Amino acid sequence: MRISILGAGSWGTTVAALVCKRHDTLLWTRDPGIVEEINDKHHNQVYLPGFALPEALTATHDMEAAVSRAQLLIIGVPSHVFRGVLGRTADHVPPWIPVVSLAKGLEHGTHLRMTQIIEQVLPGHPAAALTGPNLAREILAGKAAAAVIATENPSVAGMLQTILQRGLLRVYTNDDVTGCELGGALKNVVAIAAGMAEGLGVGDNTRAAVITRGLAELTQLGAAMGGKAATFAGLTGLGDLLATCLSPHSRNRHVGEQLGKGRVLGDVLAEMVMVAEGVSTTPVAVQLGDRHGLELPICRIINQVLTGETTARDAYADLRHTPAGTESGPW
Ligand SMILES: NC(=O)c1ccc[n+]([C@@H]2O[C@H](COP(=O)([O-])OP(=O)(O)OC[C@H]3O[C@@H](n4cnc5c(N)ncnc54)[C@H](O)[C@@H]3O)[C@@H](O)[C@H]2O)c1
Ligand SMILES: O=P(O)(O)OC[C@H](O)CO
């Protein structure tokens, strides 16, 4: 199969490196320097320093050449540029081919999930999302992991499962696309909170409380938006929440940790090459909480830290003063 992947960041490049072993794979990026490096040196030092990429993997910065050949299109750019990059494919994409999102975020303004954007920009194409606890560096290093391909189309699910299941990566299917995508997007907000706990030097009990109550928040909001509550206890909810909150490789956790150490958000982001989706997802989560009448104390306090209304230290103190209520929530 001819697979084209848009976005040669850490995750797009990793997925391309996996599938190129069995499929004719072309990776598109806007950056000609990265194209040259992948084609000539089989490296991507900006996003995956120290990793050798398969020689079979080729890259281009010609969007038409990348897209017009595709039998499967995978989009690996972050959510804030997802619609724009997808829009550039519309004149070239062959009819009806499946389109898979790798992004974990929600669109500002519309609050849409990435597969909903695919359905708007490329109507008629089966849309799917690959999500779950998948830190790119570990997958590229060949460490065992599990992922989920979320789509409502069972034959597309089976086809994508076969294509994406490579080496020690085990791929499940799930038809709760809403739940799977929301788990992937919202866990990044909680990972910022967990990172803050790390930066503040609070204990493991606090971290466990934040992760567990964070899971309750993403389950409440996800279920209110039409996801199945059970999905949030699976790989794309709890699984990804744990990986992101606990891993030193997580960019969202890193942002939280730096804020916990008292640093300013702008300075932290300015020195990061890669995206931390939770920063832009947090205000969307708060707006969605307002729309659905949900308290979401962790999302709200993280938003206040990101906007500079409060500090990480005061945020943690405030959370302690939030009335505890009963634990069993509507999930
Ligand atoms: N890195 C991971 O471990 C991982 C794992 C699973 C999911 N994800 C999700 O995948 C998505 C991409 O993450 P990533 O880690 O690869 O990000 P990254 O920061 O490593 O790379 C981002 C890529 O998007 C490209 N890009 C940015 N703005 C662009 C624009 N205006 N036009 C064209 N290209 C543009 C960059 O050039 C780069 O190739 C995110 O939503 C992330 O949450 C990442
Ligand atoms: O590095 P992060 O925080 O963007 O997390 C990466 C993945 O989403 C983990 O599954």
Automatic annotation (TrEMBL):
NADPH binds at residues 10-11, 30, 47, 104, 136, 251, 275, 277. It is found in: Cytoplasm. Sn-glycerol 3-phosphate binds at residues 104, 132, 187, 240, 250-252. It comes from the Bacteria. Keywords: Cytoplasm, Lipid biosynthesis, Lipid metabolism, NAD, NADP, Nucleotide-binding, Oxidoreductase, Phospholipid biosynthesis, Phospholipid metabolism. The active site is at residue 187. The lineage of its organism: Bacteria, Bacillati, Actinomycetota, Actinomycetes, Streptosporangiales. Pfam families: NAD_Gly3P_dh_C, NAD_Gly3P_dh_N. Residues 176-315 form the Glycerol-3-phosphate dehydrogenase NAD-dependent C-terminal domain. HAMAP family: NAD_Glyc3P_dehydrog. Its EC number is 1.1.1.94. This is Glycerol-3-phosphate dehydrogenase [NAD(P)+]. Residues 3-156 form the Glycerol-3-phosphate dehydrogenase NAD-dependent N-terminal domain. It is an enzyme of class 1 (oxidoreductase). Signal peptide: none annotated. It comes from Nonomuraea rosea.
